[in-house]
User: Fold this.
Amino acid sequence: MTDTDHLFLSRAEIRKLGALLREMPELVEELAVTITRQDRIGTPGSAGKRRGEEQPLPFNVTASEAADDLHTTLVAWVRHVCESRRVDYDGRDGTLGVARWLDRNVIALAMTEGSGEALDEIRYAMRRARWATDRRPEDSTWVDPELVNEARSAIGTAADLEKILRGMGDAALTRKRITYLDRVGELKRIALADGTTVFEVGDVLDAHVRRLASCRHASGEDREHANG
Assistant:
């Protein structure tokens, strides 16, 4: 904290943070592309498929989790500023909207006690996101549609479903990912008589797809807003 400006971030750190936040549009777009592997030409097993035949849907769980972590990190700092300085959030939903709000209010952030860690935390989340966009195409995973339809009604704990989904050829929906989807309210909990909480395979798959779609939709809306 400087004595003259009453800031918890130095002027140099404020400039660095602002520059990082203004890099967000390109990073979010790269994440959205990587999550659904739109930068990939073709998919494994696509050769010989007839037109109209159902194709496996590719997605990259590493990029998806990095996007969620980036969004959560930015939202946490927005919430910290709003609660500490008693101001209302007037930005748009989505990662870009949150980043733009922080950029506009970077001085308010710097004047908020505890903000000394903001630059390092946001920089770390962005580095993880950039690393995720550089993953090899082979790190993507594909779900067999026939096995998915057969197993949708199966139930189990997060650990059980991880095994079921791995057996279906989906290594992306790990116990950690399922627990995350539950924590953010995306899943319908089923309570067994012994108090165990279980989930349905179909609900987990649908929730995962919703999160991916939400990320892409948010980035698309913000790009349209910027272009408008």
Notes: The chain has a mean pLDDT of 77. The radius of gyration is 20 Å. The first helix runs from residue 11 to 21. Residues 14 and 32 are 28 Å apart (CA to CA).
